[in-house]
Amino acid sequence: MRAWKRLSTAALVIATLATATATTTGVASAHERGPRFAKDPTTLVDTSIGNNGDGTTFPGATTPFGMVQLSPDTQLNKYASYDYAQDTILGFSHTHLSGVGCQTMGNIRFMPTTGAVTSSDPARYAAKFSHDHETRSPGYYGVTFDNGIEAELSATQRTGQHRYTYPGGAGAQNVLIEAGESNGSTYAGDIEVVGNDTVEGWVQGGNFCGETGKERYRVYFSAKFDRTFKTFGTWTDSTLTPGRREAARGTKRAGAWLSFDPAKGDRVGSSVGLSYTSVDGARLNREAEQPRSFDKARTHAHDTWKDELNRMRVAGGSTADRRTYYSALYRSLLHPSIGSDVDNRYRGFDDKVHRADAPYYQMFSLWDTYRSQNQLVALLEPDKARDMAKSVLRIYEDGGWLPRWGLGGGETNVMSGDPVTPWIVDLYHRGLLDRRTSDKLFAALWKNANEVPADQSLFRGRDGNPTYVKNGFVGYQNLPGYKFGDSRQAGSATLEYALADCSLSTMADGLGHKDEAAALAARCDNFTKLWDASVTSKGYTGFPVTRNADGSVAGDPDPTKSGAFHEGTAWQYQWLAQQDPKTLFGLMGGEKGAEQRLDTFFDLPTVLSDPAKAASGSWVTGAYDYHNNFAFNPNNEPDFHAPWMYAWTGSPWKTSAVLRALRTLYTDDAYGMPGNDDLGSTSSLLVFAMAGVFEAQPGSAHYIVSAPMFDKVEIRPAHGRRITVEAPGADASKLQYVSSVRTGKGALHRSWLSHKDLLRSGTIKVNLSEEPTNWGAGMAPPALAAQR
C-alpha cells in the first residue's frame, strides 16, 4: 500500500492532537454549526501565545503597528521581558518588540505599589500574581496582584493608558517610574516631575542581540495623571531623595515615585505619550490622542483590532484552529511600528528631526519579515506598506544607506544578506509605488547591490560585495570584532544576494534600466557558483559550500554542519534559489531528483502516515536548534518557503501535506509558537499556510495555491475588493489536496495566481480531495528572471 493512502491514521493523529489541545485550554474543538465568520474575532485572540523563550512574544496592550506596546515585565535582559512561567511582575514598560530572539527595548517602566517607598530596586517592589487573575485581549491587559492592586493597560497609537485600583486600607498609593533601566542596555536617562500631575523624561538605549556601546535611539515620554500628587521624589541608582523633581541616570537607574492621597479615591489613571523626537513631541502625541476615559481608550483599541482582524477572516474549522489562526494574524500586524509624531516629525538615521509627508515607520526586522510578514502587510494594508517603503527611502536619504535590521533610529547590522531588496521589488510589482518613489528606491537598491559603505560604523551594507561583484560569490572572511556580517556568513549571504539581485533585475527592467537589468539578471544563478558536486550527504550528491575569495572551499563542506550558513545548514539553505528552481533542480539531478531530496528533507513518508510525528520528531524542533541539522526547520526563516518548492516538481500536492503537518506545531496556549516570532514572521507563515496562498518567491508578487484549512477565507484589503476563498469541507486535521480551482475568470489549471489576479478574482472556489491529485503539476510560477 502506498504511503499516501494511509490517510485514516494521519487524520486520527492530528484530530486527537487538536482535541487534546482544545481540552487543555478549556475550549471545545468541535466544529461550529456551519462555516460562519466570528462576529468579533478579537475574542478568538490569545495574546499569551508564545509568551516564553521560544516565541518571545508579549501579552500587553497595543494597536496595529503602534508606537506603544504597553506590557508587563517579569524579568529584565531576557527577550520580550515577559515569561509565562514566572509569577512576579516588575512593572509595565511602554516599548516591546514581538518575538525577537534577544533582549531589547522594554523602556519607561511604571509600577503601582502601596506603603512607604524605600527602594528603587524592582526586585524589592515586584508583585506576585497568578495567570488566573490576568485578562488579556487585543488592546487590553489587566492583572490583579496578590497584594490586591489591580492594574489595567490600554493603548492608542502613540500613548499608553494606565488605570490602577488600590485596595482599601493599604496605605499610600504609589506609582514608580523607572527611566534608567530597560530590557537591554541603557546608556542614559533623565526624569522630571512637572507640577503636581505630570512626569516627563527620556531614555537612551540601543543594545541589540549582545552588542554593546550602540546608542541607536532615544525615546521620550510625557505622563499626565488624573489625580494630583500628595508627595513625590526621585532616585538615581539606589539613592532616593524625597521632594526632588529631577534625576539623571547614574550607573544603572533613574526614576521617580508619586504618592496619592487614599482619602481621595482608590483609582489612579495616567496617559503616557511617547515620541522619538522630543519631550515636546511626546506631550503633543499625548494631547492629540488623549481619550475621554480609560474605557474609551479600551473600546477604541478593541474596535481597531476588530476591524484589522476582519481584513482576513475565516469560517469553519475547529475552535482551536480559529484561535490559533486569529492569534497568529494578530501577531502578524504588530510591526513595523509608527516612529513619527502626530505632526509627522520623526528622528532620522542622521539623528536629526525631519518632517515626512506621510507616517514614518521604524523597527524593520527585514531578514525575517521579507519572507512572509511583509507580503501579508502589503496584501491587507497596501497604504501602510507604501508608507513603510517611503520610510525606508527616508532612512536612505537621511543616513546614506538602506537598512537590514533597523532599530529605532539606527542600524543594528544584525543578520546577513540583502532582505530589503525583494521586499521593495514586491511592492513595486504590486503597483504600490509611484514612478518617482520607484526611481529613487531603485537607485538606492542599485547602490546597495554594488557598493559598500566607506565607514561601516553605522551601516555595514552588503560587506560581501567586493568579492561577490567580482566573482559571483561572497568570499569567506571572519572579520574581527563583528558578530554578524556577510563575509562571515558567506555561504548563505551569496544565496541571499542572488535572490535579491534577481528580483531587482525585474524592477530595473520595468523601469527601463536595461543595462542594469541585464547585469542583475546575470547574477540570478550565482547560487550555482557555490555548488560542489563532490559533496554527498544522506545519499544525495551535490550541495552548496562556502568559498574563500580564491574559490577554494572554506571550512568543512559537510552540509549538515552550519559553517558559514547563517542560522542554518546547506541542507536548509539549498532551497534558497527559488528565483530559478529549474536550474537548481538541474543541479540535483532533475525534477525527480529534487523531489526525492525534498521528500527526505521533510520525511514525507512520516508526514503522510503521521503528520504530527513528522513535525515533532523528524523536523528541527528547538527554537534555537538551527545549527548542525539537515531536516526542515519551521522555527526559523531561511527555509520557510521550502514546502512550496514542490510546486516546481511533478507533485505539488505534497505542499498541502507538509503544511498540514506544520499546522500541528502551533497551538492556542502560551507555548504555542514553534520558534521566535521575529516581528510576525513565523505567525505570518501560518496565516498564509492556513489560508492556502503563499508567495514563495519574494519579489515576484505571485501566490502559490495550496489546500486551505478553513471552509471560507475572506480577504478584505484596505480600499480594495473583497476576495473570498471557498473550500467546502476543509479541515486542518485531515490530509487534503487541491483537486480543482475556479475563479471568476474560469478554471485555474496552473498552481499560482498573480497579485493582480488575486485582487480581481472575486470568489475562488477550491475543491479538495483526500487523495493526492495532479492539479497544478507542471504549471508552477515562472522563474524571476523569466518575468523580465
Describe the overall structure.
The protein starts with 6 loop residues before the first helix and ends in a 19-residue tail after the last strand. The protein has a domain at 65-306: Beta-galactosidase, Chain A, domain 5 (Distorted Sandwich), CATH 2.70.98. By secondary structure, it is an alpha+beta fold. Helix 7 (373-380) packs across helix 8 and helix 15 (581-587) packs across helix 16. Mean pLDDT is 93; it is low at 1-32. The strands form nine sheets. It has a nine-stranded antiparallel β-sheet with strand order 7-8-9-10-19-14-13-12-17. It is built from 21 helices and 37 strands.
Question: What is the level 1 CATH name of the domain at 65-306?
Answer: Mainly Beta
Uncertain runs with pLDDT below 50, 5 residues or more?
1-32
Order the strands across the largest sheet as they lie in space. 7-8-9-10-19-14-13-12-17
The percent range for strand residues is: 15-25%
Major sheet size, sense and barrel closure = 9 strands, antiparallel
Rg, Cα atoms, Å:
26 Å
Mean pLDDT: 93
Number of strands: 37
Category by helix and strand content: alpha+beta
Quick summary of this structure?
This protein has 788 residues and is α+β, with helices and mostly antiparallel strands.
